[in-house]
Amino acid sequence: MTPERWRRALGLFLFVCFGLGVAVYLLGRVGTTVLPSGSTYNFEADVHDSYALASNADVREAGVLIGQVTGIKQAGTLTALELSIHKQYGPVYNNATVLIRTKSIAGENYVQLDPGSPSSGQIPSGGVLPVNQELQAVQDDDVFSIFSAPERQGLQRALKGLGSGLSGQGGNNLNSTLASMTSLVDDGQGFAQVLDQERSATAQLLGSFDGVATALGDRAQDIQTLTRDALTTATAVSQRNAALRSTLAQLPSFVSQTHTTADRLGAFSLTATPVMTDLRIAFTKLIPAMDDLRPAALEANTTLARLEQFATVAVPTFLKLTPFTRATAALISPYATLLRSLSSFSRYISPYRNEVGSWFANTAAAVQATDPIGHLARITLPISRSNFPTIIQGQAAEILAKLSGGLDTRGTDAYPAAGSADTPEPQSAYIPAVTATPPYDAKPPRPLKQ
């Protein structure tokens, strides 16, 4: 073997030893025991089901390996797990909990142990942790059972595709890839020399990594909780994708309608602005009026209060007037016919209300005219052609001529039309007929409330 090959072999050996040392150190820091350890702390934990848990399976606390499962036996309907943990991680207390969890996708399970708190009391070595301290975890079977038939078929097709990819030349290509990784050893020689030169910096790096690994180990439960919450959030988001797509599809029409509405509101604001300005002025002027109405409202309240007092006194009086009104109705009833006749007569002469005054004036003026000898009297014929609102002919004209002689000089219908005394107009040939007033519909008075 040439000196060059010896140097490469020695470098590879040193690199492998260094890597193994670092791995053992880091695994020891996170609780993974590679080298044999001393005494152990043993106890039994009862669970409902071991879920394909195998002997020598890991027992971990917050992700740190602290022991292993030394035996699994059936205890009636329960399963008893014999657990052995390293002495430095003991003891276990009465409120401790165990949880069987999946370690890898291959279905390898392990026991997660929470030792509990000292205040609950210690379980002696060889003691039993009851079944009610077991926590239930989601197993692979539970996860795969949530897939529907199409999803399971899709997963099968994916696995078949992976198998097809590795078959034939695919497997050879993978082997070639792994074989080509041997050059990593040669390339790692330079890397090892760099690490040797920067050993202090490497030690600091490993110390920092130790702190990070320890912190992650202490917060394994929090990381698991964060992972589960992220899964729940992702599931909720995926379920809302359809609703989100529908909402986004409606956005263009919504924006278009918003533009239309904004344009209409802009046009409306041009009209509404003067109206709102006038309303502001009107409300400003209305304030003094409302102030002036306040005294009036107070006076109105006082008046209504007094009217209420008056009503209290007046109701008994009105109740006592009921017999009087009945007697008065019996007294007035016989005069109903006369009153209806007078009503018809008053309707007939109502158009001549101005001429009635003129008639009295003419009567007074009949003897007021004078001449050099004395007063002159005006003679008015009670029956003449001027009393009729039409032209009299034939026998009626001859009778009137005999009755009036030569004194009827006013002609036919000398009086003007009714209501035209100030501006006389000729009468029409229509003579209104006098119609009787219908009987009154007397209703009994309503009784007053006391």
Characterize the structure shown.
- This protein is an alpha/beta fold and 450 residues long.
- 55% of the residues lie in helices and 13% in strands.
- The chain is rod-shaped.
Topology:
Elements: H1 3-29, E1 40-47, E2 58-61, E3 64-75, E4 78-86, E5 92-93, E6 97-102, E7 109-114, E8 122-123, E9 128-129, E10 134-135, H2 140-145, H3 149-166, H4 169-180, H5 183-197, H6 199-218, H7 220-239, H8 241-332, H9 336-349, H10 353-365, E11 369-370, E12 375-376, H11 395-404
Parallel strand pairs: 1-9, 2-7, 6-10
Antiparallel strand pairs: 1-4, 2-3, 3-4, 5-8, 6-7, 11-12
Helix pairs in contact: 1-5, 5-6
Nutshell version of this structure?
The protein has 450 residues and is of the alpha/beta class.
The secondary structure category is alpha/beta
What percentage of amino acids are in beta strands? 5-15%
Strand elements, count: 12
pLDDT average, as an integer? 76
Give the end-to-end Cα distance, rounded to a whole number of Å.
Answer: 138 Å
**Helix segment tally:** 11
Helix content: 40-55%
Reading the helices and strands in chain order gives HEEEEEEEEEEHHHHHHHHHEEH
If you compute it from the alpha carbons, what radius of gyration comes out, rounded to the nearest whole angstrom? 63 Å
Main sheet: strand order:
9-1-4-3-2-7-6-10
Largest sheet: 8 strands, mixed
